[in-house]
Amino acid sequence: MDSSLPWKKVVALTGILIQILCLCTLVESSPSLFDRIISLPGQPQVGFEQYSGYVTVDEKKQRALFYYFAEAEIDPTLKPLVLWLNGGPGCSSLGVGAFSENGPFRPSGEKLVRNEHSWNREANMLYLETPIGVGFSYSSDTSSYEGVDDKITARDNLVFLQRWFDKFPQYRNRSLYITGESYAGHYVPQLAELMLLFNKKEKLFNLKGIALGNPVLEFATDFNSRAEFFWSHGLISDTTYTMFTSFCNYSRYVSEYYRGSVSPICSRVMGQVSRETSRFVDKYDVTLDVCISSVLSQSKVLAPKQDGDTIDVCVEDETVNYLNRKDVQMALHAQLVGVRRWAVCSNILDYELLNLEIPTITIVQKLIKAGIPVLVYSGDQDSVIPLTGSRKLVNGLAKELGLRTTVPYRVWFEGQQVGGWTQVYGDILSFATIRGASHEAPFSQPERSLVLFKAFLGGLPLPEAF
C-alpha cells in the first residue's frame, strides 16, 4: 500500500481550498464578475467587455434597477464613463438607447449586427432602465410603481450610481458625463444637481458635463413651439396655425388632457390639427415615410393620443422580439418580475405626469453656475420637442447668465456634408442641431450624432470644414 496516498489527498484538498478561497476573494473584490456577459445570443465577436445586471436601491421593498454596460472598444481605462438615460417617462434605455440608437449592437432577426457608429467607440457606455418598473427594473412591492415622480427617480438614480461604483470601483474617479433625450431633460439635470450636493459631503462623482437631446426643459416654450414647426413645414394651414396659437396652444391642451378635462375649444383645435398633420406623418420625424417603430414610443407621453389617432407600429419590432427571448434574458442576467413580457415603455408604471410642467431649465442654470458644461442638441426634423423652442431656451439662458457668444451660429460638418448648425456661449453652454435627425437623433443620424458626441466629450468645437 502506498503510505503517501493520504498525504497526497491532503495536498490535493488543500490546493482546491486555496483555489476556492482565491476565487471568493476575487469575487468579493470584483462583484462585477457576476454581471459580466460572456456573449449575447447572435452577437458578432468583439474585443470589448459587456456587463449587465441589477443594483438594489431599496432593500426593504426589493427595488432594483437594471443596467447594461458596454466598455469602450479601445483603451477603456483611458476613456470617460457616460451614463445614458431615455425618456418617456417610463421608457427603456436598454431597448431604445442601447439596442436602437447608440449602443454597440442592433437586433436583426435572430442575430445582432454591429453598430459602426456606436458611442462606445469614444466612451464606456452605461445604460440604465429607470425608474423602477421600466424594462427589467422591478420591485417586489407593486406599490413602488404608484405615484412615481421626478424626485423619486432622481434619488433612485443617485443611489444606483453610488452602488454601481461598488461593483466597478475602477470607475470611481473617472471623468463622468450624463446624456439622454426627451424626458431625460428632467432626469439628467435633476440627477446632476443631486450629485453636486452629494459631492459637498463626499467627493464621489467626477461630473464633467451633461448633454441633452430634444429635451423637455420648459413645458410651455417646448410644447408651444410645435405650432410654428408644423406651420413652417407645411403640415398645417394658416387658419389652423392661428387657432393653434390663439385659442388653444399645445401646452394648454396637454395640461387639460392630463387633468382629465379637455375643453371644447381645445378638443376642436386639436381635432383640426390632427386632421391636417395626418396620422400618416411621423411626428418624431416629419420627413420619415416608413412605419413608426415602437422604438419611438418613448415620446408617447409628450404627444397624448388624440381622437382617431392610432399608433402605427412596425409588424416586426426587432428589439422587442430579441429582448423577450429567454436565452437573451439569461445572457443579460435579467428577469421579468410582475410582467409577462419586456416592453419598450412600461405598462405598470404610474408616473406623476404633471411633473412635465416643472421647469428644469432653472436646474441647468445652476449646473452652469457650478462650472458644469452643458450641450443641448436637437434633431431638426422633430416636431414633438422642436429645435426652435430649445434654441430659444438656450439663448435666453445665456443672456440671463451673461455669457457672451464664443462660437457664432454656424454650420458644422460630418464628412463632406453639413451635419447641422451650432452656437456656443462662454465655452460652457452649447446648442447644436443635427441635420436630418429625428427626436431620437442617434437612431436616424448615427454618423452625425457620433461626431457631435465626440466633440462634446473632448470639449472641442464641431468641425467647421471638411
Automatic annotation (TrEMBL):
Probable carboxypeptidase. This is Carboxypeptidase. Belongs to the peptidase S10 family. One of its GO terms (cellular component) is extracellular region. It is found in: Secreted. Pfam families: Peptidase_S10 (PF00450). Its EC number is 3.4.16.-. GO terms for biological process: proteolysis.
